[in-house]
Every structure is written in C-alpha cells, then in structure tokens.
Amino acid sequence: MNIGFITAAADRRLLDERRGTRAMMWIMAIMLFLTALAAALGLATLAATTLLDRQLVGRLTVQIVEPSAPARAAQTTAALAALRSAPGVRDAVEVDRDRLAALLRPWLGADGADPDLPIPAMIDVDLASGSAASVAAVSAAVTRAAPSARVDRHESWMSPVSSFMRLVTWLTAGLVALIAGATAAVVILAARASLETHRETIEVMHMLGSTDMQIARLFQRRIALDTLLGGAVGTVLAVVVTAAMGARLATLGSDLLDGLSLGQRDWALLAMLPFAFALLATVAARYAVLGALRKIL
C-alpha cells in the first residue's frame, strides 16, 4: 500500500483546500494534546509502579514489642544477630529511636521523645530474595531469637497503592485507545464530507481516466499532512505541560511522586505519537474514500 504524507501543490489546487479554512489540523492538535497527556500519565505511572515494586521486594520490618526496656534491648540484640547470620539477608539495621520519635511526633507530639514511653524497637531488613520461602525462613529465625518480634513485609503494606497505580496505567491506556478510535472516526467523517464537496471534480477526474486509488491518495495525503502538522503542535504543547508538571513534582520531595518521571524511552514514544496518528489517519481516509467511491460513483 503506497502511503504518502506530502501533498503536491497541484493536488492541493485540485482539491481547492486552503490551509486557513481547514479545521482538521486544529482538531488533530487537540486530539494529540489529550492523547500525549494521557500517554505521559500512563508511562509515568507505569515507571513509578515498577520502581515501587522493585524497592519493596525483599524489604521487611521487624518490630520488638516487648514492654520492658531491658528485655526489649536484649531481644533486639538477639534479633539483629540472628538476622545478620541468616542466609539470604543482605542487611539488617536497627532504626534509631530519635528517628522513631520524629515519625511519631505528628500523633504523640513531644511525648514521642519520652524515654519512658515503650516504643517498639524496629529493624529494617533487606533480603537478597523476596520469595515467600526466604521470608518465612527469616521470620522463623527472628521469632526464635526474639519471641516478641513481629515481622511485616513492606510489599503487603503498599500493595493497595501498587494495585491502584496499575489501574491508573490501564485506564490511561484505554483512554489513548479511545482517542485513537475517535480520531479515526473524525477522519472518516472529514474524508466523506470532503468527498461530497468535490463530487463534480472527482467525476471529471474519472472521465479523464483517474482511478479510485489515485483519487483516494489525494485525500489521504492531505488528511495525513493535516494530522501530522496538527499532531506535532498538540504533542509539543503536551510535552511542555508534562515537563512543567514533572519539575513541579520534583520540588515536593516525595519518594513516591519522584517515581512519576519519564525516561528517554518514554519521551521517544511521545515523540512518535504524531507519526502514529498520521499513519492511522492515512489508513482511515483511504478506506473511507474507497468505500464511498464504490457507492456513489
């Protein structure tokens, strides 16, 4: 199938279409602006979800909930020794009490720093493997050394967040697909309207020996060029908005929001959107025009 995006000057004169009077290009600019924004959100959410999953796999928190301070300290020491000697444990570090007090300050106020307050001791654990068997083995070793220990997987805490982010990714993918379908429908309507406008010219072309395929190429090239130019404008505007939002998110200092960023591959995919939509418009215009020509001529 011969697909061209550039319309010759003679073809433009033949179709009698001036750039300033065509709304197609601006419709495509709006379509591509919305598509690029949705795609950027989906790609950023996918990157954040992947980063979150990678960070949480194999991460554990061990709490020593013994109320007696001497017994809590002894069990913490025993748990640290058991963790550091257990196979599959890359690192085990006790969380500083001052840091725990700072984390509790929004709820307990200054009382969080009271040394008499029985705050559980906490140990951050990093495993080489996040498999269920590895977690079970480490948990068993910790509970043997410290009977009051509780082992929590970070993955279980954040699984609702991860699931929601995956849902957002799928929703944005569906939105991009819907906009692509709407774009194809707009192209078909525009092609049929333009075909009806130029019915007399097309009849003359047929009498001069032009084939349906040659006539279809005139329309598909014009529509493809409008889509490419309008899509480029819309995509550039969407990229500017996306970059501005990314810079704004970077100033918030949130580890989770920092993951909402686009890599080089993501920017390349956004840059390819105008070409993909131009190809979609070309194919839709060709089949719309050929189908209409078979019915009316």
TrEMBL record:
Pfam families: FtsX
Compartments it resides in: Cell membrane
Transmembrane regions: 167-191, 223-247, 267-289
Keywords carried by this UniProt record: Cell membrane, Membrane, Transmembrane, Transmembrane helix
GO cellular component, one term: cell division site
ABC3 transporter permease C-terminal domain segment(s): 175-292
Taxonomic superkingdom: Bacteria
Protein name per UniProt: Permease
Organism: Sphingomonas panacis
Lineage, highest ranks first: Bacteria, Pseudomonadati, Pseudomonadota, Alphaproteobacteria, Sphingomonadales
